[in-house]
TrEMBL record:
Cellular compartment(s): Cytoplasm
This protein's UniProt keywords: Cytoplasm, Transferase
Keyword Transferase included in the entry's annotation: yes
Gene: argF
Pfam family, any one: OTCace_N
Protein name per the record: Ornithine carbamoyltransferase
Domain Aspartate/ornithine carbamoyltransferase carbamoyl-P binding, residue spans: 3-141
Species whose genome carries this gene: Luedemannella helvata
Amino acid sequence: MIRHFLRDDDLTPTEQSEVLDLAAELKKDRFAKRPFEGPQSVAVIFEKPSLRTRISFEAGIAELGGHPVIIDAQTTHFGRGESIADAARVLSRYVRAVVIRSHADARVAELAAASSVPVVNALTDGFHPCQILADLLTVRERLGGTAGRTLTFVGDGANNMAHSYLVGGATAGMHVRIGSPEGFDPDPAVVARAAEIARATGGSVATLRDPAEAVAGADVVAADAWTSMGQEGDGKDRLTPFRPYQVNEDLMRGAAGDAIVLHCLPAHRGEEITDAVMDGPASAVFDEAENRLHAQKALLTWLVTA
Ligand code: CP
Ligand code: NVA
C-alpha cells in the first residue's frame, strides 16, 4: 500500500515516533540513508512561495542520493488548469515521490488519490505536517521528549500551523492549547480529531480565548504569521484582533521557566513575535528551521521503505 503524508494523522503515534527517531539518526549521520540512490527523482511542486521548504527538500533529496525536480507551478500546466489527477498519473511515471505545496487540501488529496507514488503535503491551507515533524524533533532535543508536555500556539487558530499542532501534537502525546481571537478558531472537525487522538496518547487539546491563560505554564510557545499565504488581499483586519496574542517577553513570563519558543518562519518581527523573544534564550527557531531538513529526509525515507 502506498503511504502518503497529507495530514499529521497520516502517521500513527508509533510511526511518528519512528520517523522522529530516524530524523535524529540522520541529523547525527547525514548520509546514513540513501533510499533514492540511482539517482531516483523526487518532484517538489510549489503553488505558493517558499524558502525553507524548497531548500530543505532540495538539499535533503540530494543527500538521500536522489535528484530533486523543483517545479514552480506557474511555469507548468499545473498553474493553468491541467487536471490534477492526470498530472499525478504522469508524474508517477517519472518520479519516486511527489512533494507539493498548494492551496486547498482537497487538491492535494485528489493528487494523492491518483498517484502511484507517495505524496507529501509541504503546506496547504489546512495543514503543515512537515513543519510539525521538525517542531517535534526540536521539542525532543530541547525538552527530552514530547509526551505530557504542554504546547501553546497563539495567533490564527484557523490556520495550517494551528491545525497541524493540534493533530500532530496530540499524536505525540502533548497537551495542545490554541489561543486565538474570536473569528479565528480552529476547524471544529480538526479539534475533534485531535481530541480523539489525544484520548489514546494521553495528551489533550484545549481552545482558549485569553492568551495569558493559554500560555500559563506552557513548555512550548509557538507563533506564526497573522496573515497566511493567500490571505493577503482578503480585506480582513488582523492586526487589531491579533495584537494581544503577540509573543513578547510579557506573555512569556507566564510560561514555564524553561519554556522554548517556536516559529515556523518567516517571522514578521514586531507583529506576532518581538525581536527580544526571537533572539532571546528561549528561542529555538533556527534549530527548528534546520530540523526541517532532517525530519523531511526521515519522512521520505520512511515513506518509500514502509
Ligand atoms: N516554514 C516554512 O514552511 O517556510 P517556507 O514558507 O519558507 O518554506
Ligand atoms: N501559516 C503560514 C505558514 C508559513 C510557513 C502560511 O500558510 O503562510
